[in-house]
Amino acid sequence: MKVGDTHYRSIWRDEGTGAVRIIDQRWLPHDFPVVTLEALEDFATAIREMWVRGAPLIGATAAYGVACEMARDPSDASLARAYDVLHETRPTAINLRWALNEMRSALGRLPEDQRAEAAFAKAARICDEDVETNRLIGVHGLEIIKEIAARKGPGEPVNILTHCNAGWLATVDWGTATSPMYHAMEAGIPIHVWVDETRPRNQGAQLTAWEMNGAGIPHHLIVDNAGGHLMQHGQVDMVIVGTDRTTASGDVCNKIGTYLKALAAKDNGVPFYVALPSSTVDWTVSDGVAEIPIEERDGREVTHIYGRDEEGRARFVQISPDGTPGDNPAFDVTPARLVTGLITERGVADASREGLLALFPERRETA
């Protein structure tokens, strides 16, 4: 996507220097820092401390982390260490493990002197495939938006609610939940997006709203608890969110608060869709509530908030009393029964084992 007149991916390798660069998302929307990641520890820190975030982008970042480590030391011990260090950074997003498995499988059988070049090529393919996957998610999601638009009056926008940021910043490009929105804009279909603030990290307020501004998509920022009210009054036509891990039975693990949106959507007859690449499906897990590990993050993310004051200074401020601890589960699980459909690169699946296997029959032996 473009920032100003320049097209960016969220992670890329500089053609001239070979350096791996990312947009450090912690400081958006008030600053736009681009930083270089070099050592394995840089990549681990970027993932753990959310310089990058979003399941597909976490996976892509891990892939390049392995590649940079192979350039430093292509030994078996170094490959194993890179896998372990990166795998321990965040427990919930399954794309992290998927990308690391892809890299280990591709490199483990190669002679050491071929591993660095092969690792960078594989990481680049993971990124390119992510872009195409997310483009296709948008193509299939667009059909849903078209169907809703056809039932509305001339020029009346399709009102979409989204939670957290599942945009191009959370992937390599296009995004998952936002890809259908970008495709709708290109197709000339009027849409309007309700952007949940998404406490405590405010990815909606800071990232999704920034993306909507940049793309010229009409939108409003709302507090997290406003979605149900808007649905009750007929102001939401559909919900689209992303996911960090989806079970083989269609349960969806996404940013904390997603489950409450799904409950409100179910109660008000609002379709609730989840957009995801197939790499986000964990075919080894069936019960999301019981089996998916939920990341517990620092309570300071709850007690403090980042923003820009009236004098134009961007800074953190404390919003709670001294001595009040913050509890901070980062994700929740939405049961499949609340999900209208899963928008994937191969089409829209029912949120069920059979629904997913209808699109991905090659997984029948493992699901």
From TrEMBL:
Reaction catalyzed: 5-deoxy-alpha-D-ribose 1-phosphate = 5-deoxy-D-ribulose 1-phosphate; 5-(methylsulfanyl)-alpha-D-ribose 1-phosphate = 5-(methylsulfanyl)-D-ribulose 1-phosphate
InterPro entries: IF-2B-related, IF-M1Pi, IF_2B-like_C, Initiation_fac_2B_a/b/d, M1Pi_N, NagB/RpiA_transferase-like
Top EC group: isomerase
Leader sequence segment: none
Keywords: Amino-acid biosynthesis, Isomerase, Methionine biosynthesis
NCBIfam families linked to this entry: eIF-2B_rel, PRK05720.1, salvage_mtnA
Name of this protein: Methylthioribose-1-phosphate isomerase
